[in-house]
């Protein structure tokens, strides 16, 4: 290195103070906007099914083979205990601590009300864990809400804090169909077909949850919440349920 | 719980929408982003706006960033484009020249006499005055390589040129600088 280069390198510069860019930038980090020209289906690619901490789910052996294909080697699959009478539906699904509806918000620490369609839930659970608190509402099967095999639950509506984000990655699994669309200006994804799960990222890191009910999963990113509706539902029904969650 | 904080991990999390991870990336890159913007805009207020806009654009563009690549060249491309746009919009104006740190905090013990210290200070000012007179692209390549210690890829990103051209550009800029600076005896 020449003398001139050495001088330049060792020059002590009076740079103007770097402004507090984290504080200026952070409030402007909106939910990632979709890339402009990518076709929506490919953009939403498919949800990652695997790689992170395993959730537990009551699934048949054939379905566990599919999970293996998707790379979920660490997933623990448990047989669900038969539901005891008198306990809220969903008790065997490891949804957390059963609470009374009136306590749910305080227990979870964020505003969350059940969908007005179908209405008052039969079970309410609060759990902590990766990604923060979540509230789960369960509904027994009833006309219009077919029973999801053996769980005694018609639909499961989960509300997660907005700091949790579904991770969009390619999935290796065949047979899962993912449709992306918008619900009232919010991004949404509807997953059907083969057993699947959802991976999330959060301030605590990433985690994965297998679906808890056989059937379909709808995810809606509303600005104050991440809403998940599971059950054996068609898209229109799932969307109607999600839309009926009061703000 | 200990979490790996290396860049690749932060980028992966930020791509998934983790704003805290992205804010951490901002923290680690903000000096270089702001100073590179300064080299181009020559104006601190513009550089601040440029750096802020660049980070927001980087957030939106993250899904298209191929993981495993180094972040900084990619980020500096965004910063430099934003800075050049700002310069074009702002029009030519006499901006803040590069300044040397004042030397009162540093008295080199082995500098010998006060005269030697004074001469060193004069030399510094001369050098920077000469840099400020260089054409923009030459000031920029020297500023990136020597004042900010950016590598060739990062410098190329800031200039918007191919990395293979940086060696020759640097050599030419140094030659030009030497012409501007009276050499030491």
Oligomerization category of the chains in this entry: heterodimer
Uncertain segments of chain A: 33-84, 168-173
Shape annotation of chain B: elongated
Largest interface: A-B, 37 and 51 residues
Terminal Cα separation of chain A, in Å?
65 Å
What is the string of SSEs of chain B from the N terminus onward? Answer: HHHHHHHH
Q: Any idea what the radius of gyration of chain A is? A: 22 Å
Strand content of chain B: under 5%
Low-pLDDT runs of chain B: 103-110
Largest sheet of chain A: 8 strands, antiparallel
Describe this protein's structure.
The complex is a heterodimer of chains A (247) and B (185). Chain A is α+β, with helices and mostly antiparallel strands. Chain A is built from 6 helices and 15 strands. Chain A has helices at 3-10, 21-25, 40-43, 61-69, 101-108, 235-243, and strands at 46-47, 56-57, 76-77, 97-98, 123-127, 134-139, 155-160, 165-166, 168-169, 176-183, 186-193, 197-202, 205-210, 216-222, 225-231. In chain A, the strands form 4 sheets. Chain A has an 8-stranded antiparallel sheet with strand order 4-5-6-7-15-14-11-10, with helices on one face. In chain A, strands 8-12-13 form a 3-stranded antiparallel sheet, with no helix packed on it. The longest helix of chain A is centred in the N-terminal third of the chain and has 9 residues, at 61-69. Chain A is elongated and about 85 Å long. Mean pLDDT of chain A is 71; it is low at 33-84 and 168-173. With 185 residues, chain B is an all-alpha fold. Chain B folds into 2 domains: 7-90, Rna Polymerase Sigma Factor, Chain: A (Orthogonal Bundle); 96-180, Winged helix-like DNA-binding domain superfamily/Winged helix DNA-binding domain (Arc Repressor Mutant, subunit A). Helix content of chain B is 68%, strand content 0%. Chain B has helices at residues 7-15, 19-41, 44-61, 71-90, 114-133, 136-147, 152-159, 166-180. In chain B, helix 6 (136-147) runs antiparallel to helix 7. Chain B is elongated and about 55 Å long. The A-B interface holds A 2-5, 7-9, 11-16, 18-19, 21-22, 24-26, 28-29, 31-33, 35, 163, 165, 167-168, 200-206 and B 1, 3, 13, 16-20, 22-23, 26-27, 30-31, 33-35, 38, 44, 47-48, 51-52, 55-56, 59-60, 62-64, 96, 98-103, 106, 123-124, 127-128, 142, 146-147, 149, 174, 177-178, 181, 184.
